């Protein structure tokens, strides 16, 4: 049957038989003793089953349907021997009821098969009516009763009033009392003189259907969807079951038949004598579940005869998993899975026999990574690929999600830039400090966001150790630091342009997951370490008063005194401001006045910068960890069960901003003087003896221009590797990017701006791995209208240039926002760094494999690579990766950090060496395969040709 199904799915069909998403509804009726019964909705399916609970006031949670094998055999026999009407053209329920009225009848079951609902097919209703004199089991009155039952009013599950708009997913169309005989061409009911309609409770007054906002919103989500109606019931006047499967062509909008006003495509009717309602119910559930199956649902659309439907049912049975009766209670509702498996293998011939252990390894690469063999050929190709998307990059940025992402980026960029600028100012005696950092990151970030091939990448500061060593070297040999630095930067720009011209970025094909995750993990751990280190550093500024002697509390004091040995800077300040030191009453000065006059604090109650204030460090710890926990909670709020989807999504998108606002208000309310974010208030160079343009030669000897080539080489390697590894991580296949990428263009923009920053005496800025990963995660787009119980589908990333551009524009304008930024506590920003580092570790295969070392085999997750790779090989691969990470960390945090770029480059060669320890099949599960040489590819192609 699977081969026939695959043949059916492969056939081309017209527009009328193109499969659509289906909304399946099951209604049941029970007619006993002449009661005026109605069709009652009992279950519905969009992807998973939902039942009306026994109380009748609410829907059950969506769950995976569990079906009995007996229902399968009954349904298959009904489809095999019953009435199957394909491509019926009808405009109302009356016409359909008339068609079903000619359905086939079934004899009563024999005593040998008392549990069955069928035996042999009897003549059709018309034939029975023609033989009315010989048989009185089904007369004209019975036929009229069946049609009258099919035309009765459908009462759907009533919805309770919603507390907030948007809480109701489905509309209660039935309460509008729509006419069940309404034609498909209009949504307006028409009066009819028929008395039978009055008995059925139809509305005779013409009235327009008014849809609520919730209904209209659902209609927008289900645009193009069709309905499958399952009608089952027991009738006391029937002696034998009636079954019909009807496919309407085209689909018809039968108002009142379904819970939501969508056109009906399929109709399954099963009516039988009383006493077997539960069996009819289970058969109806099986039919409805079949219609939600991805493969059978497509077969139902394309079937040309009864045998095609039977083949679809048989193929469904082949894929069914059977549970032993003594091991599982069918009344237990199975929760929908987090990840729904793909059914594509069922549609492709020969795919079902592939267990996955012999999959063909896929190599990395694409058209953007193919060498062109021309000078600047890769760059030209990047520009051609990205140019058509340029204007859409701005249109796609006009969304609430982008606003939240841009505000988050601003907060995430400000603190490291200011911290880095402060550290750089201390290392270079103010030649490059906070103001230069703000200007540099703003200019570089705006240009990169406008012209880069991958604007989702975010730039950040780096090479602090290099700047320290270079300044110390210049100071020792009496060289101009800014001039020599400008030469090094210009040489680095030149080498990067040469790499762009020679398509060197194509070598990123050799950067596999091994290198990506080792480098990304290093940056994550650095973020976590530096966040904790900055918090602990506050202990020095705001020490904890331990083992205090309370008896001496009355003798504690802190007063201001003139400095015993004033520094040169202090003397210059006094002289330039004409301050008479001897005439100052130092002991009467306030803390602010004492600090302004460069006084010193003396006394047992003094701290580092004035009188000791208790509780500051502990309050900083509370702010730090509270920020981390609150931010994590708000980011996960999107998957919580409270409030509507829109509210949860908005809270999650603005998690960073909400966290900062909440913590600022708490800090302001407590009144404890925690350290705050400090931003320069004037736009001017930090030192008065330098300008915004630097002469590359300046006072230095001419040979320094050539000597600058030596330090420029490791800088080039660092910039190239950092840029390309981050770009590979951002451009991963699982991010589902649609607007291509531009490795060559990215490197060119970074190189040009590095030269500009060198000439202007600004810090260098290259790609920031963690900021880029977090930026991408903040722009993930998921489906809005997933079926109940089905997790939202990941659709891709909102690719645009607005978030990066606006965040760097705001960073440049921060000088004018000091009145607001001065309220943000620094521990809050440190907590955000900690969250960025921890959250970026999630989803890394390396981190998952690392946890396997401390996990017993029986408790290990069911990862794919654990199925096909021996555990000792998995541990060996992880140990190699961990050793590389430890070496990178050791070099990065020592004075040998100058050779760090060479070690990053060495990761590629370490990964290549693993080919001797692992097979290609094992590496295809643990990592990505590295590209082979042309000769190797030619040899493989020759061998395959010979085998064929």
UniProtKB/TrEMBL annotation:
InterPro entries cross-referenced by the UniProt entry: Band3_cytoplasmic_dom, HCO3_transpt-like_TM_dom, HCO3_transpt_euk, Na/HCO3_transpt, PTrfase/Anion_transptr
SUPFAM superfamilies for this protein: Phoshotransferase/anion transport protein
Biased composition (Polar residues): 181-195
Record's bilayer topology term: Multi-pass membrane protein
A Pfam family recorded for this sequence: Band_3_cyto
Localization annotation: Basolateral cell membrane; Membrane
Gene Ontology process terms (BP): regulation of intracellular pH
Main location: membrane
Band 3 cytoplasmic domain segment(s): 21-100, 121-330
Gene3D superfamilies: Helical hairpin bin (1.10.287.570), Mannitol-specific EII, Chain A (3.40.930.10)
Domain spans labelled Bicarbonate transporter-like transmembrane: 374-931
Domain of life assignment: Eukaryota
Molecular function GO terms recorded: monoatomic anion transmembrane transporter activity; sodium:bicarbonate symporter activity; solute:inorganic anion antiporter activity
Region named Disordered: 181-209, 329-373
Bilayer-crossing regions: 403-425, 437-459, 479-502, 514-532, 616-634, 654-672, 702-721, 742-766, 802-821, 828-847, 898-914
Keywords: Cell membrane, Ion transport, Membrane, Transmembrane, Transmembrane helix, Transport
One GO CC term on file: basolateral plasma membrane
Regions of compositional bias (Basic and acidic residues) in chain numbering: 356-367
Extent of the signal sequence: none
Protein family membership: Belongs to the anion exchanger (TC 2.A.31) family.
PANTHER family, A to Z: ANION EXCHANGE PROTEIN, ELECTRONEUTRAL SODIUM BICARBONATE EXCHANGER 1
Name of the featured protein: Anion exchange protein
Species the sequence originates in: Trogon melanurus (Black-tailed trogon)
